[in-house]
């Protein structure tokens, strides 16, 4: 630090402990990292200590103003993370050691990549990013936790974590990229004929269902829409034998505090709302998050979640659609496999060595899998080669 520089690192028990404008100046355009989104999770009782998410957000201040921050939680479980470490927890248990609690730097319930070390654009990125990682390691040791985990990092911050000794992990997601298409039909022309025909058939099947679809943003979204969507959300959770991470209040708070970020695709049949998909948007991308329905119709899920997101991206000139975790079936709908990144600090040297060896093998296998998935691309050979070259 420069001579005379006054730097302080604070632990925040809630994101409201810093002004929204200062947090957002560090978070940038990412909707899930915004003060409003993280606050909605806390105020709705979705990501709080009682649910196994104890906020310990880091705030680095210089001369009284926020210059860096990180969304950070002490976790009592591994639910809602989408980077699975259950086998690590089981290994600790077999050895008679406690894996929980642990530190988790992430956006709860949100597998969207990006910055996790939030640095003000006028501050020196690597210096303050390193300070945040160092603070996480120190906090892990001071609280006698098993480790600290930073999930869904962008590549730059993932590499920085590797340089300071954290273990590195690679995963896969499926994103759609806008190549300057002027319409959905323009996008279809980039595909091989058979795939083009399949998608046209799929969209016709959804249209033939008689379900009226509308894409709503901002003030177009009412409390009626949110109440209906929450019903779809819980229906989907119940069918999958899961538990609802998000409370009903979360969706209403989201609609009240950041409506301009929300893109809600809703389906109505015979005057009743029967399906919906929740997306958030930034200036460059639309992010698919949740889907649900009370009645099933052929191809409706694909239409609401994937095709309508592409429609929106083309209409608004967005660079990409990120359709959430998992889902190899997305490839046939124009979404391509991309790497995701996480970094991990483990306090016990013996476990660290074993997991480091595992991650080395896993990275190699994951990249082989991505290469194989890429061969399933529906794009014409000339378009596929151009994508690989990038």
Describe the protein in words:
The chain has helices at residues 20-27, 35-43, 86-94, 125-142, 155-163, 184-188, 193-208, 223-239, 248-257, 300-316, 349-374, 381-389, and strands at 7-12, 53-55, 57-62, 65-70, 72-75, 102-105, 118-119, 147-153, 167-177, 212-217, 262-269, 272-281, 285-293, 320-325, 336-346. By secondary structure, it is of the alpha+beta class. It folds into two domains: 7-174 and 338-374, Aminopeptidase (3-Layer(aba) Sandwich), CATH 3.40.630; 179-318, 3-Layer(aba) Sandwich (Aminopeptidase). The strands form two sheets. An eleven-stranded mixed sheet has the order 2-5-6-8-15-9-14-13-12-11-10. Strands 1-3-4-7 form a four-stranded antiparallel sheet, with helices on both faces. Strand 13, helix 10 (300-316) and strand 14 form a beta-alpha-beta unit. The chain is globular. The relative contact order is 0.14. The mean pLDDT is 94.
């Amino acid at each position: 630090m420069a001579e005379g520089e006054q730097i302080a690192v604070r632990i925040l028990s809630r994101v409201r402990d810093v002004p929204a404008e200062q947090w957002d100046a560090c978070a940038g355009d990412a909707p899930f990292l915004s003060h409003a989104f993280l606050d909605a999770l806390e105020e709705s009782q979705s990501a709080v200590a009682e649910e196994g998410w104890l906020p310990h957000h880091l705030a680095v201040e210089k001369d009284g103003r926020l210059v860096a921050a990180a969304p950070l939680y002490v976790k009592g479980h591994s639910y809602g993370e989408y980077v699975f470490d259950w086998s690590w927890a089981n290994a600790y248990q077999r050895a008679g050691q406690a894996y929980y609690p642990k530190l988790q730097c992430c956006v709860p319930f949100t597998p969207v990549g990006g910055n996790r070390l939030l640095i003000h654009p006028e501050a020196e990125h690597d210096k303050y990013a390193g300070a945040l990682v160092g603070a996480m390691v120190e906090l892990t040791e001071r609280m006698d936790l098993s480790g600290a985990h930073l999930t869904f990092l962008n590549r730059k911050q993932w590499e920085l974590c590797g340089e300071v000794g954290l273990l590195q992990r690679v995963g896969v997601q499926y994103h759609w990229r806008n190549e300057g298409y002027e319409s959905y039909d323009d996008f279809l022309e980039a595909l091989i004929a058979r795939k083009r025909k399949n998608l046209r058939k799929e969209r016709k099947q959804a249209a033939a269902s008689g379900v009226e679809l509308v894409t709503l943003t901002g003030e177009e979204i009412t409390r009626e829409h949110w109440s209906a969507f929450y019903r779809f959300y819980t229906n989907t959770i119940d069918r999958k034998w899961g538990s609802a991470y998000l409370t009903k209040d979360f969706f209403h708070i989201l609609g009240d505090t950041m409506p301009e970020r929300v893109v809600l695709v809703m389906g109505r049949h015979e005057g009743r709302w029967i399906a919906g998909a929740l997306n958030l948007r930034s200036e460059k991308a639309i992010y698919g998050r949740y889907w649900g329905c009370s009645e099933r119709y052929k191809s409706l899920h694909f239409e609401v979640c994937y095709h309508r997101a592409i429609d929106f991206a083309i209409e608004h000139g967005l660079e990409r659609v990120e359709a959430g975790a998992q889902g190899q079936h997305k490839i046939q709908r124009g979404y391509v496999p991309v790497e995701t990144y996480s970094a991990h600090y483990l306090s016990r040297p013996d476990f660290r060595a074993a997991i480091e060896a595992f991650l080395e093998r896993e990275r190699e296998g994951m990249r082989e899998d991505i290469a194989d998935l890429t061969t399933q691309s529906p794009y014409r050979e000339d378009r596929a080669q151009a994508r690989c070259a990038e």
